[in-house]
Design goal:
The structure holds two protein chains of two kinds.
Chain A lengths: L1 H5 L16 H45 L5 E7 L5 E4 L7 E7 L5 E11 L4 E9 L4 E9 L9 H4 L1 H5 L4 E2 L14 E3 L9 E3 L5 H24 L1 H5 L3
Chain B lengths: L8 H12 L12 H6 L4 H24 L9 H23 L1 H7 L10 H11 L4 H31 L1 E2 L2 E2 L14 H28 L1
Antiparallel strand pairs in B: 1-2
Helix pairs in contact in B: 1-7, 3-4, 3-6, 3-7, 4-5, 4-6, 6-7, 7-8
The chains are: A alpha+beta, B mainly alpha.
């Protein structure tokens, strides 16, 4: 008994150096904080989720009505691998989505769809509108890009560049399966034909990226849209 | 609480003010340089980044101070990071809910608040040793100092680089923006300029004190 008393550990020299806590205490402390953290995150997620969804939908909807002039209402269609068109309530990111837009008095105003491709720094995503009556692209808006501020990001707001997409010719051949003139990029100010996109000086790579993604997307999807036009027009 | 925040008013006021001026996290301690350089290309981005960081700092300091006696020393850094990451996620969702455009502009830098050394630094150096009241004041002071600093950079960079203040044009049509100012290089120039100004002010103060 007296032995145990004499070998009592001396108090630590630095009171700040707390004695080694048992593993149980460490685990329970971390577990408890982890639990609080989890509850907080789930709670915030639940509260903000509807607002975030709203914001995203509003952003997309604004973009859709911007690229299809004269549109008043829209319906969402998806196209599966076999080319079958189905109306859906929510866009499915895995399938090609067509946003059919209707004029306020009825009648198809145009079809909006997304295209994406590699830009200067990261993937650029755009949405563009196609008017089947004019057989032309009638509007384009950048949804997501990380192009260089002041140079590459002119693809988002440069008025001269955006003018390219007000009546960009995408006529189909008589068989309706290929574009007569695939889209092409020319140097700034040298646009002569309605299927040409005049690039931005100082943002050649970004302009080329937009041209490439639109060329690919129009070549693939415009014939499909024209083919499925009756289905997109119905019930307006 | 053994000490309430009202027991030592002058010292507590100092606790708040030192973050703003004497120990400004950016201009004096040179902490958190990554967001300072990366997201100060416009006034709005800088302001949102400053406020988000202040919010995370405030919440993490509060929780760390409250739990300081319960957290075993050996696992304190892990728990601090857990607490900080939680509030960063909360801030991330909140910004998305308020304005998705701003969230898009700030990109990955919201999530990177987790590794902003100001926050972990204050948790370790201050909140883990001080009472709740003092920790809250410290967080507000440091957060305020950080916000002021990023705004200092954001205002200069947007006005010179884009000719606008928070999106409103401030110069006439003829103004040619200095694009370099909103590019990464401009961030270094402007930060260097502000640091120069602050060290000059400090030096001058020292000299007048010596002369007196």
């Amino acid at each position: 008994m007296t032995d145990a008393e004499t070998t009592k550990p001396v108090p630590p020299a630095f009171p700040e150096e707390a004695p080694e806590a048992g593993s149980g205490k460490m685990i329970s402390a971390m577990g408890a904080i982890g639990l609080i953290a989890g509850i907080l995150i789930v709670f915030t997620y639940q509260v903000t989720f509807p607002f975030i969804q709203d914001n995203k939908a509003r952003l997309l909807e604004k973009a859709i009505f911007e690229v299809v002039p004269g549109a008043a209402t829209k319906r969402v269609f998806t196209v599966d691998a076999a080319g079958k068109v189905t109306e859906v309530a929510e866009a499915d990111p895995k399938q090609l989505t067509l946003y059919a837009c209707y004029k306020s008095g009825g009648g198809l105003a145009g079809v909006a769809l997304e295209a994406s491709g590699q830009g200067f720094q990261d993937v650029i995503r755009v949405i563009y509108g196609y008017d089947p009556q004019k057989e032309a692209v009638v509007g384009m808006k950048v949804l997501q890009s990380t192009e260089t501020p002041g140079l590459g990001d002119k693809i988002e707001k440069d008025p001269q560049f955006l003018d390219n997409f007000e009546a960009l010719d995408v006529k189909l051949n008589p068989d309706g399966d290929v574009l007569v003139n695939p889209l092409e990029m020319v140097k700034s100010g040298q646009k002569t034909d309605p299927w040409q996109i005049s690039a931005i000086t100082g943002a050649t790579i970004s302009s080329r990226a937009i041209t490439a993604m639109l060329r690919e997307s129009t070549a693939k999807n415009i014939p499909l849209i024209v083919q499925r036009l009756p289905e997109l027009q119905k019930g307006d | 609480m053994p000490e309430t925040s009202t027991s030592k008013p002058p010292e507590n006021m100092d606790t708040f003010l030192k973050g703003i001026w004497k120990e400004n996290p950016v201009f004096v301690q040179l902490l958190g340089m990554c967001p300072v350089l990366a997201v100060t290309n416009s006034v709005i981005n800088a302001l949102v980044m400053g406020l988000a960081t202040t919010f995370v700092l405030l919440m993490s300091n509060t929780l760390v101070s409250l739990l300081r006696k319960l957290i075993p020393k050996q696992v304190r850094i892990a728990t601090y990071i857990l607490i900080i990451a939680t509030f960063v996620t909360v801030a991330d969702y909140t910004i998305q809910a308020v304005s998705i455009e701003v969230h898009k502009a700030l990109g990955a830098f919201i999530s990177l608040i987790v590794v902003n050394c100001i926050i972990l630094g204050r948790a370790e150096a201050f909140a883990s040793k001080n009472t709740l009241g003092r920790s809250v004041l410290d967080a507000l002071g440091m957060g305020g100092g950080f916000t002021i600093a990023v705004l200092c950079l954001g205002v200069v960079r947007e006005v010179l680089g884009n000719g606008t203040f928070a999106g409103i044009p401030v110069f006439g049509e003829s103004f040619e923006p200095w694009i370099v100012m909103i590019l990464p290089g401009g961030a270094f120039f402007v930060l260097g300029g502000w640091l120069l100004l602050f060290s000059w002010l400090k030096q001058r103060k020292k000299q007048t004190e010596l002369a007196a």
